[in-house]
DNA sequence: AATCTATTTAGAAAATTTTCTAAATAGATT
DNA sequence: AATCTATTTAGAAAATTTTCTAAATAGATT
């Protein structure tokens, strides 16, 4: 886990696009890949980065692999940001 | 601006450490650099990335350069995350 | 069991990022 | 004006990331 991995995963346009795409339900690797102008292999690489970061989970069904958001990690990241909301002792 | 730049800036341990370090007030480049086991030039590079991303601002005083958090960009990032809180239409 | 379909893995090339050393800048002090 | 102090910029080397093509896997269909 670790924020390094999570923020690195979030730091790429394609990967953030994939996350947005998964907001309203799971999608197969193929469906996801078809939205991008890159090979399926490359999109598969991005999915693996998101999966390693815990931002998505996979679910096999027939010979498809469906991906969906893992919202709990989003909440962890939100929590990281709350460190910057107040809590500072003046200056 | 743009999220690409902001998330890239956040995706490095050293840079996130710098941000945490700036929570309770501004610090000079030298003070910041002294907390890391790397050259001042390298820390300066990280500061430039954070500055480009809008996460910090600089302020010259004597021959020091002080850096401080720019909280408004943190709020923008928080907003990005709210896209993943509900808003999804079942499925 | 042969083939098809969806997807990933391996390996290499290209691009980007991180770090360093050395030199440059620029304001402060002598 | 010479020097010192704090910091950045330039350029290069090393490390990491992104992308591709080709091959591998694995379940589904014929």
The share of residues in helices of chain A is 40-55%
Mean pLDDT of chain A: 92
Order of strands in the sheet with the most strands of chain A? 1-3-2
Number of helices, counting only DSSP H or I runs of 4 residues or more of chain A: 5
Order of helices and strands of chain A: HHEHHEEH
Number of strands of chain A: 3
> Structural class, from helix and strand content of chain A?
alpha+beta
> Which blocks of ≥5 consecutive residues of chain A have pLDDT under 50?
none
Q: What is the straight-line distance between the termini of chain A?
A: 33 Å
Quaternary organisation: homodimer
Specify the overall morphology of chain A.
Answer: elongated
As a whole number of angstroms, the C-alpha radius of gyration of chain A is 15 Å
Strand coverage percent of chain A: 15-25%
Main beta sheet of chain A: 3 strands, antiparallel
Q: Largest interface, per-chain counts?
A: A-B, 29 and 29 residues
Task: Give a quick precis of the structure.
The first copy, chain A, contains five helices and three strands.
Verbal overview:
The structure is a homodimer of 91-residue chains. With 91 residues, chain A is an alpha+beta fold. The first copy, chain A, has five helices and three strands. Chain A has helices at 3-10, 13-21, 29-33, 40-52, 71-82; strands at residues 27-28, 56-61, 64-69. In chain A, α1 (3-10) runs antiparallel to α4 (40-52). The longest helix of chain A is centred in the middle third of the chain and has 13 residues, at 40-52. The A-B interface holds A 3-4, 7-8, 10-13, 16, 19-20, 23-26, 69, 71, 74, 77-78, 81, 83-85, 87-91 and B 3-4, 7-8, 10-13, 16, 19-20, 23-26, 69, 71, 74, 77-78, 81, 83-85, 87-91. The first copy, chain A, binds a DNA duplex (30 and 30 nucleotides) through residues 8, 12, 14, 28-30, 33, 38-42, 44-49, 60, 62-65.
């Amino acid at each position: 886990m670790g924020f390094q991995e999570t923020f690195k995963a979030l730091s790429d346009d394609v990967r953030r696009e994939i996350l947005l795409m998964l907001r309203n339900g799971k999608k197969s690797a193929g469906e996801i890949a078809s939205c991008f102008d890159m090979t399926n292999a490359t999109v598969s690489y991005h999915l693996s980065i998101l999966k390693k970061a815990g931002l998505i989970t996979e679910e096999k069904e027939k010979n498809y692999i469906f991906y969906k958001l893992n919202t709990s990690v989003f909440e962890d990241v939100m929590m990281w940001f709350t460190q910057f909301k107040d809590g500072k002792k003046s200056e």
